[in-house]
Design brief:
Length: about 240
Amino acid sequence: MQPEVRELLRIAARPYLAAGFYPYFFARGKLAYDPVYVSLLRRGGIPERARILDLGCGQGVLGAMLIAARRQYETGAWPAGWPEPPATTQLYGIELQDRSAKWARIALAGSAAVQTGDLRHAVLPDADSVFILDVLQHLEPEAQQRVIEKVAHALRAGGTLFMRVADIAGGLRFGFTRIGDWISALMRGERIPPLHYRPLSDWIALLHRSGFEVEAEPMSAGTPFANVLLTAHRR
């Protein structure tokens, strides 16, 4: 890993010390070992002055990464060949778990608005970029469809939805994904919830029906999971 990337991850996690040791070490681990955050910055695609909506935002790690990225870019400590990260974005998150939402508000310190709420019922503000990372399997199939339809209405024409899902057709790697979701629930002190996965082809078809053009790429590098990042452009 490039030194600039290691420093970026360190700076993004540091604000969570104000929320406590658990959220801090969770952020450190998530940023270091989950490939999606670095990949999103390396590939670009978030417009300048974007209104960013993070659904199921947890403790706001994506927002912390974007804020740290802009600060690092402005100091000149930015990985060679990476696109410029977006500036002056509006960050808005919705999270079901009040404890995680509280940690997000502490760490992001006014740089983002984080609401505690259920995606099934939340009213979504207008957005240029929407992120749903490892969230929809926690919703019933009908609710998954409703949330995607709400996102389609919230996104401006030409806006982008970045959605990471697990592919139930992923064989042994999907089994590890399911176990990872169970462990995550137990670590949060929750019972193992019912989870609702789909084959990748079903996720793509659902997005097409909601007015999106979709690109898919594996997003499990360095992990045993069957995760796929769907980049869906609003028609």
